[in-house]
Amino acid sequence: MIFLVLILLFFTIEPASAFQKDGCAGDCKGCHSLTQDEASILLTGFVKKVVKVEMSPVKGLWEVTVEANGKKLPVYIDFSKKYLVSGDIIKLATRESITRERIQDLNPVDVAKIPLGDALVMGRLTAKKRVIIFDDPDCSFCAKLHNELKKILEKRRDIVFYIKLFPLESHAKAYEKSKTILCEKSIKLLEDSFAGKEIPPPKCKTNQVDENIRLAKSLGINSTPTIVLQDGRVITGYRDADTLLRLIDSKKQD
């Protein structure tokens, strides 16, 4: 993924004509337009297919959804239709990447393809909002996220977390630890591992860890923690409780 590229857009030689015309105030669509066909012509040679065009969160830019390597990605075209911006738009106040969130929204996974029989459960099984977490028992950020999940469950009875163990190759002991935890179906053992405590060898034979690894790779998941929301959105990395609640309660925007 390309990050922070071509952000010289706002220093072009004709800022007034590019971003605002006489009489244009508030609703930029009243003065500017970009159709899907126009975007396709402008991006000839850059992408194979333009899926959708809409106003970006940043005034002066169109967000153009394109298909590349089997995924949908947002790129940006300025109102003058002379410049392409390919990279992250980051909200300075929160340091969050709007672009990454859009990529997650545009590329949901099929939650029905994720079996939950082996998952560790946190919360009430009858809860309406199901969230799947791919965790590694030796992942420090997974441990931080785990504490945030507990905070959420103290407030909300309508959310349940299903934890799928996905040990990374970079953590040499995580594979055997995952087998032990799955054999015992034990949240406590997972928490012991997060706390740096010794985990005993597995007491059963199971291929479930290998199945989880294959599943994660088939879904394009390659890091932990990875959060899969009920609508299929994939959130990578640690989030605090408030941010995660906002994501869980929000609806995917197509």
Keywords, separated by commas or semicolons:
254 residues; alpha+beta; 5-stranded mixed β-sheet; elongated; disordered N terminus
Structural class: alpha+beta
Side-by-side strand order of the widest sheet: 7-9-8-10-11
Mean pLDDT, all residues: 87
H-E string? HHEEEEEEHEEHEHHHEEH
Helix content: 25-40%
Biggest sheet details: 5 strands, mixed
Low-confidence stretches: 1-25
The number of helical elements comes to 8
Euclidean distance between termini CA atoms: 21 Å
Number of strands: 11
Approximate shape: elongated
What is the gyration radius calculated from CA atoms?
A: 22 Å
Strand content: 15-25%
Question: How would you characterize the overall build of this protein?
Answer:
The chain has 254 residues and is of the alpha+beta class. 30% of the residues lie in helices and 21% in strands. The chain has a five-stranded mixed beta sheet with strand order 7-9-8-10-11. The model is unreliable at 1-25 (pLDDT under 50).
Brief digest:
The chain is of the alpha+beta class. The protein is built from 8 helices and 11 strands. β8 (129-135), α4 and β9 form a beta-alpha-beta unit.
